[in-house]
From TrEMBL:
Protein name listed in UniProt: Adenosylmethionine-8-amino-7-oxononanoate aminotransferase
Keyword Magnesium: no
Membership in a protein family: Belongs to the class-III pyridoxal-phosphate-dependent aminotransferase family. BioA subfamily.
Biological or metabolic pathway of the protein: Cofactor biosynthesis; biotin biosynthesis; 7,8-diaminononanoate from 8-amino-7-oxononanoate (SAM route): step 1/1
Source organism phylogeny: Bacteria, Pseudomonadati, Pseudomonadota, Gammaproteobacteria, Oceanospirillales
Compartments, as annotated in UniProt: Cytoplasm
Needed cofactors: pyridoxal 5'-phosphate
Class of the enzyme per the UniProt entry, highest EC level: transferase
InterPro entries: Aminotrans_3, Aminotrans_3_PPA_site, BioA, PyrdxlP-dep_Trfase, PyrdxlP-dep_Trfase_major, PyrdxlP-dep_Trfase_small
Primary location group: cytoplasm
Residue positions where N6-(pyridoxal phosphate)lysine is found in the record: K293
Gene name of the encoded protein: bioA
PANTHER family the UniProt entry points to: ADENOSYLMETHIONINE-8-AMINO-7-OXONONANOATE AMINOTRANSFERASE (PTHR42684:SF17)
Amino acid sequence: MSLPTASSVPGASQATASGAKTDLEFDRQHIWHPYSSMTSPGNIWPVQSASGVYLRLEDGRELIDGMASWWCAVHGYNHPRLNAAATEQLQHMSHVMFGGMTHAPAVELAKRLVALTPAGLDKVFIADSGSVSVEVAIKMAIQYQHARGKPQKNRLLALERGYHGDTLGAMSLCDPTRGMHHLFSGILPQQFFVAAPQTGFDEDWNDQDSEPLRQILSQHHQDIAALILEPIVQGAGGMRFYHPQYLRQARALCDEFDVLLIADEIATGFGRSGRLFACEHAAISPDILCVGKAITGGYMTLAATLASTQVAETISQGEAGCFMHGPTFMGNPLACRVACESIDLLLENNWQTQVQRIEQGLLQGLAPARQLDSVADVRVLGAIGVIEMKQPVDMTRLQPACVERGIWIRPFGTLVYVMPPFIMTDDELATLTAAMVAAIAVSG
């Protein structure tokens, strides 16, 4: 059976004739984009293709992508090695169920993850998105405590200003007042929250910063299965960089109060913060680790939740006799094969040198923003650059101003930030940062 052609579908010839304009109108009428309104959808720019760090629009304009497609396309677009890996895998199988079966791409990916992640994370559950990997971590923590004979430890503790995803369990761990999910508070599991770290990454450590964490664990550890946090970098909750000592204290307090530590490295994993995993800034290992985003270099959705042997074996010896989760696309061979190639490419490209170079370019390129009256702060860590505004960004003005200057970024709230692909050249980075500052100056 062949697919219908334009001439065989009613109305298709008219759509073909009107081209991209009609497609864009259809998009506005029928397609619901992330965090968008169907009655006031805002600006949409049709993308024709992508290569390297450039997005080519339907009208021929090229934009330098400062977002790496929401932080995942670390090698840029249309990379020949990642293309070849996907093509080669397609000759064997694009998918096969993971229940009762295994395959080389999954085994090879697990080998790489066990070798590269912090010590002790030896069991790998391959999920199909970042939010799902957090859901898996939640279930692991609760099932672990239940298997230990402590079913009352069935709530989680999270940091204010945190963000962990858009599915229901993950939403319950996002900041309950400043976050994006307060509308759903009536149906979400009720979790514990503690004040976010206040000591900045490069500031002198304040011993009182971890005291609220100690207090809440002291009072409620009997009910808490795990503490979940984004190590060092709080991403969508504010692009905040906090002191490594807080993470060390969190690890020690979890041990003291018999609570698991879950590290959500979906955004920070694979080099983004200047370390391969942000936990390395504090030289700690969590009990459970979530990774995603950059794992396939932005080619397709994939994530993983890693656990210690103690967590995995305790769950496996509990009432259920197994871990109670199994996504249809778990261990997808195509995604796993590309992920292996992406990780190999990351290591061969000397990612640390790439990220250090980008960090220096961001420090230099974003510095002039400090002179703008509308800017509250400028901060950089690894391949993350943030301009924080005094007032929320007017997207209807700032985004078009950026596109006019040949760059693509996606501000939110008061934050104008970039997480560029690691392959971005110094000249491209200078163009990106200069255009950001200029766009803020005329629209901020």
